[in-house]
């Protein structure tokens, strides 16, 4: 749910800050930003776990 809200916020900001951009560009860039954030959180979360944490 948080990622959907983040997508809407980024899309609204991009549409406001870059009015010359078309809607496909605005929505595509917002989607790309959310995907990159999700990938960073997924990879960063696994890096901090040890083998003992995975067993529990």
Structure explained in plain terms:
With 56 residues, the chain is mostly helical. The chain is built from three helices and no strands. α1 packs across α2. The longest helix has 25 residues, at 23-47. It is elongated, with a radius of gyration of 16 Å. The protein starts with a helix and ends with a helix. The model has no long low-confidence stretch (mean pLDDT 88).
Strand content: under 5%
Rounded to the nearest angstrom, the radius of gyration is 16 Å
Q: What is the helix fraction of residues, given as a range?
A: over 70%
What letter string, H or E per element, gives the SSE order?
HHH
End-to-end separation: 27 Å
Q: Extract low-pLDDT stretches.
A: none
Largest sheet: none
Average pLDDT, rounded to a whole number, is: 88
Number-wise, the strands total: 0
Using the alpha-carbon principal axes, give the shape: elongated
Question: By helix and strand content, what is the structural category?
Answer: mainly alpha
Provide a count of the helices: 3
């Amino acid at each position: 749910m948080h990622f959907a809200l983040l997508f809407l916020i980024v899309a609204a900001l991009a549409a406001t800050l870059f009015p010359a951009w078309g809607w496909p560009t605005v929505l595509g860039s917002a989607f790309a930003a959310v995907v990159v954030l999700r990938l960073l959180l997924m990879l960063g979360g696994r890096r901090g776990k040890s083998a003992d944490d995975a067993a529990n």
